[in-house]
Each structure stands twice: as structure tokens, then as C-alpha cells.
């Protein structure tokens, strides 16, 4: 009888110690920052990413998502990631360009003909080159997320490019973005994302520029109800991990480094789907809230492109070559 009992005990203990996936406590907890709120496509995709990682590491690694800029503005998060204080984050290309100036090429206005063109580029060799090129500063790029096209919106009616002249427009903390806006005859002010609503309300700025979901999610439509659909920038988002965090992941299991990249890419496909739905929803919500949309006509679009031409003329040889390849993709 005693023998039988002993065998049962051995089997039960063996069963539980072999089943790592049932371990209650993660061996590693990583902090992931996003400056958007719950419900926003990038945050929902980050939650999905966390679930994939939990499932595929058998619960050994947990990703804790911190939305709403609770860990700081994008620039603050970036600085903390470089020193290993925050493990992962989702950044706008507009913020990243300030740290990785070579990304500026991807930020050029009217670089892509449409969203499909952008994804052909980002899903191909050029996208991989930039994603994997974001190393050497303590952080590594894992996957692209969609962020649609950015347009201007203002407190006062906007008929065409000339209406922007003399206005004070908020831009991301990115010098090339300031330059772009100044080429249109407006004055650029760099303000963190979370402070734009109050800057609009306090009349510190006349307008800003962003994609439709951000415009509505941040209530900017309440303060700046004139939306000029010029779609000047298409700035994707990038999911990043710090080199420090990547080493911790590898210490648990070296194969998890690639697993993270794979999960991030999968969450990227999920985010793209959510993005398209959210763009439509945001447009309807903006319309219902009384926003006036202006679509530039052909002449106006030509004038916009012409005003921004110096940005293309100032490119170096290598950048020109990449722009040409993008055009042919
Ligand atoms: C988008 C992007 C944010 C970014 C913001 C901005 O909303 O998703 O990450 O901070 O643009 O204009 O600052």
C-alpha cells in the first residue's frame, strides 16, 4: 500500500513540475508603455501581444501594459528605455525620427500614394531595413503598427492651404516636422501629445495635425472642429523593446527573442484590422459632433506638394535613392 502511495505522490509531483505552462507566477514581468488609451487600436493590439507572449511562453513572461502616458510622454519613455527603466513601448515614427534621424526619409510628406503603397514598402525590404536599423541606441524595433494619415485641424474654418498661413500649429517633438509646417507658412510649436487638448483650449495654438482616431480619442474635435483632409504624413508606429529587456528575455530562453518578434508581427496584423475599423468609427463620431471636413481639390493638393518640395530637394544621395525605390514599390 505504502509503495502505491509513493508512486502516486511521485507521479503527481512530476506532473506539476513538468507543466511549466501552468505556473502561476511569471519569471519575468516587462513594462510596456503606450500614450494612447484603452480601446485605441495600438493599446488593444498591445494587450493582444501580451496574451500571445503569455500563451507561448507558458506564462513564464508577462507583459504589463501601461496606457495613457502613465509612464511618461513618448520622449520620456524613449529616454527611460535607453537606460533600461521601461522595457517595451509603441512609438510614433514622428517621435522616433528625433532619435534616429535616418528615419526622416520615411516621414517625408506625400511619400506614399496610399495606405496599400505604404504597407508594400513597410512589409518589404525597405521596411525591414529601417526596423532592424533601429539598434545601437539601447532599443530594438520589432514590428510596425498602422497610424493612418495625418491631416490638419484648426479652431477656425480652413478652406485651403492658404488658410494655414500665420496659424500656430502643434507638432510632435520633431524638428523636421516643425520645418515641414513652417514651409506652409504656419508657425510650429512642439508639444507632447497629452498636452495638446489643453493647448487648444487655452488658445495657445490655433490647430494641430494628426490622424482621425487620435483627433477623436483625445477630444481635439471639441476644441478644433475644422478638419482639413490633406493627409500630408503617413507615419506608422513601431513596437520596440530595450536591449536590456531583450537580454532578460534571452536569459529565460534564447528562442524567446525571435518569439517576441513573431508575436509583435502578429499583433501588428491584428492592429491593422482594428485601425481600419477605428478610422471609420472616428470619422462618424467627428461628423456627429459637428466637425466640418474640407477635402483639398486638385489645385490645392498641388500647392501643398509644391510648398513641401524643398524637403525632397534637400535630401542626400542615399535618401533620394530610397525615395525612388519607394516610388517604384
Ligand atoms: C499619434 C501617435 C502617438 C503620438 C501622436 C502625436 O496619435 O499614435 O503616439 O504621440 O500621434 O501626435 O504626438
From TrEMBL:
Pfam families: DctP. One of its GO terms (biological process) is transmembrane transport. GO terms for molecular function: carbohydrate binding. The keyword Signal applies. Keywords: Signal. It comes from the Bacteria. InterPro entries: DctP_fam, TRAP_DctP, TRAP_DctP_sf. One of its GO terms (cellular component) is outer membrane-bounded periplasmic space. This is Extracellular solute-binding protein, family 7. It comes from Sphaerochaeta globosa (strain ATCC BAA-1886 / DSM 22777 / Buddy).
